[in-house]
What does this fold into?
Amino acid sequence: MDSRIRAAILPDYNESVRVSAVTIDDPGPGEVLVEMRASGVCRSDWHAVTGHLPLPVPLVLGHEGAGIVRAVGPAVTRVSPQDHVVLSWIPQCGACRWCLDGQPELCERANDAAVNGTLLSGAQHVRWNGEPVHTFSTTGTLADYALVSEESVVPIPKSLPFDQAALLGCAVLTGVGAAFHAPIRPGDTVLVIGTGGVGLNIVQGARIRGAGRILAIDPSAANRQLARALGATWAIDPTAEDPLAAVLDATRDEGVDVAFEAVGQPDLMALAFNAVRRGGTAVAVGVPLPNASVTLNAFAVVSQEKTLTGSWYGQSYPPRDIPRLVTLWNEGTLKLAPLIQRRYSLDGVNDALQDIASGRGGRSVIVWQ
It folds into this structure.
């Protein structure tokens, strides 16, 4: 292939993203070269732009993508050229304590690679003006090609459209996974705070799990409408009424069985905790600022046996869980097409990022023809 490609580069925090020519290496041992066909634009990308997620710059953005394998390095066994794949931004090593203890989403090596803007091996294979460029969460999907670790690719059937498949790599896996791992029982009342890309998929996951009622809180009318379309039975506008009072009114002052916070704001995590019933569980899914803290009523933790827990990447293992999600999509149970509200070319990446900043509903997806 021509080693010169185009990529969406963040030069420094709070600067406009530049779509620029870069060079990319051929795959080495255990590495896979993927021609990108679609990449979702996530709130985490926006957090990198603003510096709230202090990743090293310059940085190739993007971590939610799908494409076609074009070349593989020595010793690669998971995929072959021409395979269609989804990229996972946590390439679990399978050997650290967390992988071996059944929490591969907390993989130590993957975390270190993400923080340092490298592949799992520590390698950097993209150069901009002759200098190495970091990649977002071991993937860097907002580029014509992504060179990733073998552990980052999961094969998918060719019947699944790329724009829908891309969402499996982050928003769907995170949201549905969070719901699947939470203590939701058939008939339970569930609350989802924030119905952006991840929150909408928590709604879907709760519906699939058999929740009896699903309450959704979001200031965006478009997001509330999408939440209803995907399974929410009650939508609350927090700009028009007190959200906690509305939840308690809807549950006769009892509270919900399980609440999810999908924005990453400490006050909303506290809202989720306060909204659950005695013995209930609040799940923090949104990513807050690294130094943020949350204040809870300590007496309620003990006397009401409430639980506040976290869910990172849906507590998922992508090689196992992405094929399961594909099965649910194929059966018509999991809805992917309604999540996509806007499509852009790579040159429209700044418009897609502004969609997030302005709170536009649904997902914006970059597509390659």
